Amino acid sequence: MPANLFEWENHLSALREMLRGATQGRGRLALVSGAVASGKTTLLNTFAEQAIESGALLLEATGSRAERDLPFGIVRKIFDNGAMPADVRSEVIALLDGNALESTAAGRMHVMSQISSALLRMVDDRTLVVLVDDVHCGDDQSLQFLLHLARRVRQAKVLIVLTESPRLRQEQFTFHAELLRQPNCVRMRLHMLTESGVAEALSGTLSATVAARLAPECHRVSGGNPMLLRALLEDWRTVGEHGEAQQRPAPGEAFAHAVLGCLHRGEPEALEIARGVAVLGDARSPRLLGQLLDLSANAVQQGVQDLHQCAILEHNAFRDEVARTAVLDATPATARGALHARAARLLHADGASALDVARQLVSARQDAEAWAVPVLREAAEFALVEEELEFALRCLERAHHACAPGPERTALKARLVSIAWRIGPAAAESHLPELTEDAGRGRLAPRDVAPITSYLAWSGRLDAAAGAVSALAQSAATGDDPAMTAAVSASAQWLTMLSPPLRDRLPTVGTGTTGATAGAPRDMADLAHAHAAATMSAVLTEGQADRAVIEAERVLQRYHLSDSTLQPLAVALMALVLAGRLDLALSWCERLQGECSSRRVPTWQALLSAVRAEIALRQGDLQVAAHQARTAMSRISVQGWGVGLGLPLSTLIQAETGMGHYDEAMALLEQPLPEELFQTLPGLFYLRARGRCHLATGRYHAALGDFTAAGELMGAWRMDIPLLTPWRLDAAETWLALGDPGRARALAEEQLRLGPEDARLRGALLVVLARTDELKRRVPRLKEAVEILEGGDDRIQLAVALGELGRAYRSLGDFNRGRVLVRKAWHVAKTCGADPLCRELMPRHADPGELAAAAAQPGQGTTETQRDVEALTEAEVRIAVLAAHGNTNREIASKLFVTVSTVEQHLTRIYRKLNVKRRRDLPAKLSDSSLTGTV
């Protein structure tokens, strides 16, 4: 098929040739057909300009569907023309207005003959060109006149050019056939642009290279429709004007308007059918489309064919989503809603999938009927598989609204909350009050009790959660529902674990995974909550770390990650952390993070990142801890974290403090907190983090207050377990900072007596005790602490112990061993990112080459001095700087943890390399204050 652009040029050339023939007295007739927006009107207008330039008398008219019932409407337009001589116009108008139109067919034929004669009298001196666009929209009388005129112009200087749609009305077939029977009639057909035609059209305004690059995509989107192509190019240029890089043309506002323009220019059913296709998504079922629009199958097929011909549709669907959206947006809201609602009923009756029916129900924006409730519920579950969380929520919202009050409605609300919580706990907030009321009325299903209780507690509604569990417990006691009894027991265990002050307000429960409900049927959700709560209780109240590790692994192995098991799995991970099994906790946490890394589950990812941050913090990896904590807090809003905020926030505060970012840590302390936080376990984490920040920044009494408060809470809750918060250790370090080693020692010894035997904690306590001991007893304690900590995971605490041991050896005069241990401590602290600890261990320590680099800066000395300094080793640089500052050999040995003999040997080599004889001859540049900090 030739490209439409060439086709168009050929047709224009043929019309010019026909005009020349008409000028010579050989009357011609051209019938140009083509789909909407194929270029018929453009062809006609271009030829009209050329006809005027040739001196022809041009008479034009355009058919209109609105005037189809107006007799002789097109004829009146032809003669209502400024180029028409006034006398002829008056004569014709008089004939049209005369009573002859009301007479017989023979009378009307006589009038048409008179009008034709009036026209033909004007061609003696000039060629007459009659152009009628969209003749298929003309009235019957005008069509009869044009056919009558066509029969009389064969030997006249007349050219008649008509354009029509490929699809004709029934009454137009005779007119069309009679025209084509005329020997002087030429039929022309305009097609859509091919891809090469699109490239040729684009090259008129773009470079050949750009046109060739854009042509394939432009042809795909526009289908070669010239009107759509121009609009697409306009959108592309508009984007370019706004400075946005746009490699590929993308349909926009102009394209959407062009689509609607094409539809309005077509047959009346075209727009209606396009709306139906937009609602259903495609036109694969003419029967269904016909039922939707109340049209016959034949009318639908014809309309769909028209939409394909004008390139609006391709393969029974819109070429681009912008076109479909434009059609839907242009449909009045009431009509659109009615179409979607009707489509839903038709699809449901036709056996369509729940997802397809639900999409129509949701788009209808109308109250759903009772039959739609199970469909919407099923569709929501399928949508979750496809990660369409917002659509799943809308399905459940419609189902909930359509459902009558009762257990089923409550179950829908509970499922809605679980999905909303997956997106972000804040999204579920507005639904929790209604669920609380339903729980009080006993409407919650057993499977929903534990998850909803945990959501209420997370949001800080501790009293509401306790009240709901108590109400359900009373309801279960009066009934015979073992499943509900088990669910209530699990929820009570969960709340007691999270917020120990609630213990006295909740039903009595056992400490195992079954408790008082042994043998009762259990739902996976309440079983997971009960199992995880019992696991944490083994750590917090019973001090059975080994059993807690076993139970935690069982939880992690037994339950897969889901909305209802996320919190139990996170609690099991924290049980491993508190029990000191960071290796297992890290392995399981990374596995769970991998499971949800590619899914749209922000809350899942946030909670697991918070746990991962706590693991990193306890391993001494401060940078990873800070990164994971910030990631957790960025996944969901601060408001959405509820009382859970205590976990990532406390980790982040401690990590920033450990890295020496005190301003950042203090800024985090300004974060508003839920009032209920300090009634929960995360509140203890926060108190410790705030205390450690105060301790590091010299606010010792504030720190002591936080540590003591944590201890008082743990005592009141009957879970004074240092694995949770070692408040005595923290307080002891604070008393040391305050200069009261006696109180520090008392707290450390008390904690050692209480146990439990945790390696990390015992090592830290031994360091505190060593700092309160006399020198001769300090080294054995520190050696034991180092030995213990080397077998553990906490590298920062190991660095502290190594540094203390190094200082102890130094005090005893063993400089070599002290130097090695302090350097080892420094390196361990450096890998942890603990810069304040690094500065404490070796205040003047520098990386190799720092001094030489500083000496090489402009204004820092002569070129000769720079070369001399660069010749020194790292150790020689440090000793040279200290010597230049006037330190004695013994002072240098003490500061660098080396022997006096080592200092003397280094100085000998330094003097030789710098070509000096004595200490005072060392280059002045070595004592410059800008270099002091490098040592």
Strand order of the largest sheet: 2-3-4-1-5
Overall SS class:
mainly alpha
What is the helix tally? Answer: 49
Give the mean pLDDT: 86
- Rg from C-alpha positions? 44 Å
How many beta strands in the DSSP annotation?
7
What characteristic shape results from the CA principal axes? elongated
Largest sheet: 5 strands, parallel
Instruction: Tell me the helix content.
Output: 55-70%
Organism: Streptomyces javensis
Protein name: LuxR family transcriptional regulator
InterPro entries: AAA_16, P-loop_NTPase, Sig_transdc_resp-reg_C-effctor, TPR-like_helical_dom_sf, Tscrpt_reg_LuxR_C, WH-like_DNA-bd_sf
Pfam family, one: AAA_16
Structural topology:
Layout (H helix, E strand, L loop, with lengths): L3 H20 L4 E7 L5 H14 L3 E6 L10 H7 L6 H12 L7 H16 L7 E6 L6 H13 L5 E7 L8 H9 L3 E6 L4 H8 L5 H15 L3 H16 L11 H13 L2 H13 L5 H8 L3 H13 L3 E2 L2 E2 L2 H9 L3 H17 L4 H11 L7 H14 L3 H14 L4 H17 L1 H4 L3 H9 L5 H13 L3 H17 L3 H17 L25 H17 L4 H14 L7 H13 L3 H15 L5 H18 L2 H14 L2 H4 L4 H13 L3 H7 L12 H16 L3 H17 L10 H11 L3 H14 L4 H14 L2 H16 L4 H17 L3 H18 L2 H7 L8 H6 L7 H8 L3 H11 L4 H8 L3 H15 L14 H4 L3
Parallel strand pairs: 1-4, 1-5, 2-3, 3-4
Antiparallel strand pairs: 6-7
Helix pairs in contact: 1-2, 4-5, 5-6, 8-9, 9-10, 10-11, 11-12, 11-15, 12-14, 12-15, 12-16, 13-14, 13-16, 16-17, 17-18, 17-19, 18-19, 19-20, 20-22, 20-23, 22-23, 22-24, 23-24, 23-25, 23-26, 24-25, 25-26, 26-27, 26-28, 27-28, 28-29, 28-30, 29-30, 30-31, 30-33, 31-33, 33-34, 33-35, 35-36, 35-37, ...
Protein name: LuxR family transcriptional regulator
InterPro entries: AAA_16, P-loop_NTPase, Sig_transdc_resp-reg_C-effctor, TPR-like_helical_dom_sf, Tscrpt_reg_LuxR_C, WH-like_DNA-bd_sf
Pfam family, one: GerE
